[in-house]
Specification:
By secondary structure, the protein is of the alpha/beta class. It is 60% helix and 8% strand. The chain folds into seven domains: 181 residues, 2-Layer Sandwich (Alpha-Beta Plaits), CATH 3.30.70.1230; 138 residues, P-loop containing nucleotide triphosphate hydrolases (Rossmann fold), CATH 3.40.50.300; 94 residues; 221 residues, no CATH class; 58 residues, no CATH class; 95 residues; 60 residues, Winged helix-like DNA-binding domain superfamily/Winged helix DNA-binding domain (Arc Repressor Mutant, subunit A), CATH 1.10.10.
């Protein structure tokens, strides 16, 4: 029997070298991503990993009835054959789960009829297709063919699911393949696009709705120029077809640029400062702390092989020249293609003028094709063909002019079109045409189309020129309707303009959106200026978009709307600044605060505020107080995200003005602004946030309350106060969830999980943070996605799941790189934590150095507090350097960060033989744990004290501490990192040998029975006496309070003695002292007194 009929046969039992299945078989092909590099850089790790992989293969192949053909596969790849597709999927899942670090498997599955090369190996189309499918995957990813998917969709392993990745052209194979990814909670499920020849995300070139007619020779020449040169500029008059030719050339070269093609439309940009921002946005890059948008772009492109198409550079030549020069200088594999009506005039530029279409075929073909779109029955033959040729000749072969003329066949005959041109274009007769004549030809063509409009159509047409990047019908009504053009007329007139190809219409998200081609829009603006209505219409345009932004400010649709209307919003803001009308400009930018924050466009928002505040004509007194006060506050809050500097004095000035107005909402916002400015001055910041929160509570303003609470959670975390941070985050999350604010809820969950982890609730933190990165990614909140990945990485590292932590840190690094290096310092810290969890000290040290080197001054104290440099140096046996670093860090940090530093210094001191220093630091750390509620590093502090006790010969005390530390780790769900194991095993062995196995185990069990708080109390007992009053509750020592607590719980003296590891007589002595200090004569009185002080 063969194929599916042979499924019950367990081929593994027959020996993989003697029988492979035939017929219809499911093949699993796998290889190791980056195998060559890994063998070169980590030979020892790879040797061990492959030994583990071989053992795993032996187990899973047998478990899933598979067969591994003899010597099938090249290098580190392998092949497994299965009679059942479901067995193959289950085997693939087990392999991904068990893949040992640093191995990351790429696995492809396909089902088909196989051919044998010999008795033990395959050959032919099925194994070839399986190999190509595997080649699409990334390390850690399993992909299935459509055939295999259909067989297993109802027979997946428990918890598994399938994710469609689309249909792709597979290298060397004629038929495209549907590709599906195997997903499961135990494995990584998020990957970059498949490794196809041209990823669907490798470019943003706009889809073309019409065919590209002619220009085959020009396309070939431009493509050749781009291959041989790094900067090519297509020049020519408006309407010559520069943009379309550039896009087609880029498409033709898609296979030459491994890292993508990116089209940046600069037509709507008037402000030079926005050029770099627009490029960054096109590349999907948000603002970066301490880095300009251009620097962000430079860092992102780096050594990538990219083609950047900068379209419509003519209005910003100087700025474009500077940007291009800097990009080409810093990015050695970047190629830039630009379109402009004149050369950019920078070194290395090759200019190529876009010619008119040839009359004999290209121009006539374009006219005919576009005319058929306007009137499907149109066909140019004989005399009609001569008329078309004449029309194209008179239009000088200019594509836009030809398209406009062709659109008229809907209402006019060819002869009427030709006659109109004769009447209108007498200027075209004569000799050779130069550049200006070509422009005049285009202008004449548009002028002719304009002349055919009715008065009402002309009126609407010119008024529509104020819109940038398109508009919707409501905007057209609001801006253009006046007494001369009433609202009810606009729909009809707009539809007629669409029919006449002066306005384009496309459906977006279920609604129509209209747009004027840029050349046509410029013509409309000229007509608007001639009419004397320009100032009126620009003002109405500005007022409409300011009002719309303010109206949508609290609406969840704001961000989507603002992203679509970016060009109009920029134009509205620019008009206000140009006119010296700063109040509407500031109102507009403040209303867009949510856009700046959720989409990572903070620096764009800051720049927009600064255009007003830094203008020579700006004065606070000329703007409504509430407007400039809010603008100052909003700008200050934006700087907190980017770590830019902001003036606390200016924030206080706005706060004082808000108090003068008596506006409690504005006061709260200004308090928040001051808190944001002072983020890295914890005590100052927290006070501001607390006051802001109080005002929000009083006003029952839940939107601001949850936002302020999320920010207080951040400030408390910076201050090293995880308990306060957790409380703020939890409340903020509850409020955000109640009002449906997903962004703030996700922000709160990140800081809630962070605080829970510091407090020792690592497993609980996992539950809180789970899913945040995916939710943020789906919502377009890439900053929160990145923060969530860093959080996940940290707690996986503390749990000892080094491989998972490394995977998360890799995801975070990929996300950061895609964002142009956003928050690189924290990415390096996350990577260092995963390296320490795996025992890779040198790698951790390098990442720590990178974190410190790449942060900005404002964040330096915080980043130093987070960076595990001390442990990295200790892991590298650089003990003296570790001591120097940690001595300075202890003095610079507060709260739980100082606790972490003290614990690290205790272990460094032990490595130096300074037991007294280690003991002092460990006790100080435990005291801080009680104050801050940060218990994550309590086990390391207890073990440091245990090692000191063992060295002093107090083996019972040491064993009890070791047992307590292990129990605390178990409760928290964390692991001991290799760096903390230095000297630990020897100390434990010393205690076991000195006490004997039985006694050691008993004492260890006593320690294991303690809670973390009990362990701290036990460790601290007897450590010095602090001055206390002679009587009253405050006079009780920590030990006496422990005795009281147990007595209140109903324990007798003997039970208390066993619990506290002291004798019953000592318990009675403590109770006698307690009775005397409190004036009690019985346990009943003692219980009542304790209740009063609970």
């Amino acid at each position: 029997m063969t194929g599916i009929d042979a499924a019950p046969l367990n081929w593994s039992d027959l020996g993989v070298s003697e029988l492979v299945p035939t017929g219809t078989v499911t093949l699993l092909l796998a290889d190791v991503e980056g195998s060559t590099r890994l063998w070169e850089t980590q030979p020892d790790e790879m040797t061990a990993a492959f030994a583990n992989l071989d053992r795993t293969l032996a187990e899973v192949i047998g478990a899933h009835s598979g067969v591994r053909p003899i010597e099938q596969g090249e290098g580190d790849s392998f092949v497994i054959a299965f009679g059942r597709a479901s067995d193959a999927v289950a085997c693939a899942l087990d392999l991904q789960r068990a893949a040992p670090t640093p191995i990351r498997l790429r696995i492809g599955l396909h089902t088909g009829e196989v051919q044998l090369r010999d008795e033990a190996n395959y050959i032919g189309p099925t194994i070839n297709r399986t190999a190509r499918i595997r080649d699409l995957a990334h390390g850690g990813q399993t992909v299935l063919s459509g055939t295999t998917t259909d067989l297993v969709s109802d027979r997946l392993p428990v918890g598994a699911w399938l994710a469609e990745l689309g249909t792709h052209t597979v290298r060397d194979l004629p038929r495209p393949e549907r590709v599906v990814q195997l997903c499961h909670p135990d494995i990584r499920n998020e990957f970059p696009p498949l490794r196809t020849a041209k990823s669907s995300r490798s470019h943003n070139l706009p889809a073309q709705l019409t065919s590209f007619v002619g220009r085959a020779q020009q396309l070939e020449e431009v493509s050749r120029l781009l291959v041989d040169n790094r900067l090519v500029t297509l020049t020519g008059a408006g309407g010559a077809g520069k943009t379309r030719l550039a896009i087609e050339a880029a498409n033709a070269l898609s296979g030459e640029f491994d890292d993508g093609l990116w089209w940046v439309d600069l037509a709507a940009i008037a402000d030079p400062a926005v050029v770099s921002i627009t490029i960054a946005r096109t590349l999907g890059l948000p603002d970066q702390p301490g880095r300009s948008p251009l620097e962000t772009v430079q860092r992102f492109i780096g050594n990538r092989e990219i083609l950047l198409l900068l379209d419509n550079c003519e209005q910003l030549l100087d700025t474009c020249g500077d940007v291009i020069t800097r990009l080409l200088s810093s990015c050695p594999r970047l190629t830039i293609l630009t379109t402009s009506r004149e050369p950019i005039a920078v070194s290395g530029e090759v200019t190529w003028r876009v010619p008119s279409l040839t009359l004999e075929n290209e121009a006539v073909a374009l006219f005919s094709e576009r005319a058929q779109r306007a009137r499907p029955t149109f066909h140019a033959i004989d005399d009609d063909l001569a008329l078309v040729t004449d029309i194209c000749r008179r239009l000088d072969g200019m594509p836009l002019a030809i398209e406009l003329a062709a659109a008229r066949v809907r209402a006019l005959s060819l002869q009427q079109i030709a006659d109109s041109l004769n009447d209108r274009f007498r200027l075209l007769t004569g000799g050779a045409r130069n550049t200006m004549r070509r422009q005049q030809t285009l202008r004449a063509s548009v002028d002719w189309s304009h002349a055919l409009l009715t008065d009402a159509e002309q009126l609407l047409f010119r008024r529509l020129g104020v819109f940038m990047d398109g508009f919707d019908f409501d905007a057209a009504q609001a801006v253009t309707a006046t007494n001369e053009l009433e609202q009810f007329q606009i729909l009809d007139q707009l539809s007629l303009l669409v029919d006449k190809s002066l306005v384009t219409a496309d459906e977006e998200s279920g609604a129509m959106r209209y747009r004027l081609l840029e050349t046509v829009r410029q013509y409309a603006l000229e007509k608007l200026a001639e009419s004397g209505e320009a100032t009126l219409m620009r003002g109405r345009h500005r007022d409409h978009y300011v009002a719309a932004a303010v109206r949508l400010e609290e609406d969840e649709r704001l961000v989507q709307w603002a992203e679509q209307e970016t060009g109009n919003l920029r134009a509205a803001h620019a008009w206000s600044i140009d006119c010296g009308e700063f109040e509407p400009a500031l109102r507009l930018i403040s209303a867009l605060q949510r856009l700046w924050e959720t989409r990572g466009r903070m620096r764009e928002g800051i720049a927009a505020f600064d255009l007003a505040f830094n203008d020579m004509g700006y004065r606070d007194e000329d703007v409504a107080a509430a407007v400039w006060i809010r603008a100052v506050a909003d700008r200050s809050i934006l700087t907190a995200w980017t770590a830019d500097s902001a003036s606390l004095e200016r924030g206080e000035e706005a706060l004082a003005a808000a108090r003068g107005l008596g506006d409690r909402g504005l006061i709260a916002l200004c308090l928040a602004a001051c808190g944001a400015i002072a983020y890295y001055l914890p005590e100052v910041s927290q006070a501001y946030w607390a006051d802001a929160i109080d005002l929000a509570r009083q006003a029952r303003d839940r939107a601001r309350l949850c936002y302020f609470l999320s920010c207080l959670a951040v400030a408390s975390n910076v201050a090293g106060q995880p308990l306060a941070s957790q409380l703020a985050a939890e409340e903020g999350r509850r409020v955000a969830d109640a009002i449906g604010d997903g962004f703030v809820s996700r922000h709160c969950r990140i800081w809630q999980a962070t605080a829970m982890g510091w407090r020792g609730g690592v497993q609980g933190a996992d539950e809180v943070i789970r899913g945040v990165s995916e939710e943020a990614r789906a919502a377009g909140e890439r900053m929160l996605e990145l923060f969530a990945l860093v959080c996940e990485c940290s707690w996986f590292a503390y749990e000892g799941k080094a491989a998972v932590a490394q995977m998360k840190s890799e995801e975070a690094r990929e996300t950061s790189i895609a964002m142009g290096g956003f928050h690189e310092d924290t990415i390096h810290i996350a990577w260092a934590l995963s390296a320490l969890a795996a025992g890779r000290g040198a790698e951790a040290k390098a990442e720590c150095e990178a974190a410190i080197g790449q942060t900005v001054p404002e964040r330096m104290p915080y980043i130093r507090a987070l960076t595990p440099m001390t442990l990295a140096l200790l892991a590298c046996s650089e003990v003296a350097a570790a001591r120097r670093w940690v001595d300075e860090t202890v003095g610079l940090t507060v709260g739980n960060y100082q606790l972490n530093a003290l614990v690290a210094r205790a272990h460094v001191a032990l490595a130096q033989g300074e037991r007294d220093q280690a003991e002092r630091d460990a006790h100080d750390a435990l005291a801080l744990a009680l104050v801050t509620g940060a218990f994550l590093h309590v086990p390391e502090a207890l073990e440091a004290l245990g090692r000191c006790a063992a060295d002093y010969g107090n083996h019972r005390h040491a064993a009890r501490l070791f047992g307590a530390a292990t129990a605390s780790r178990t409760v928290m769900g964390v692991a001991r990192w290799p760096v903390y194991a230095i000297g630990y095993d020897d100390a434990v062995a010393q205690c076991r040998e000195a006490m004997g196995e039985g006694v050691f185990n008993a004492i260890w069990a006593e320690g294991s029975a303690m809670s973390t708080e009990e362990a701290i109390a036990y460790a601290q007992r007897g450590r010095g006496e602090r001055k206390r009053p002679a009587s009253g509750w405050e006079s009780l020592t920590p030990t006496e309070r422990d005795v009281v607590r147990h007595a209140v719980d109903g324990l007798g003296n003997k039970d208390i003695a066993e619990r506290m590891f002291i004798s019953p007589r000592t318990v009675q002595t403590h109770l006698t002292h307690v009775y005397a200090k409190l004036g009690c004569t019985s346990r009943i009185q003692l219980i009542r007194e304790a209740a009063r002080h609970a």
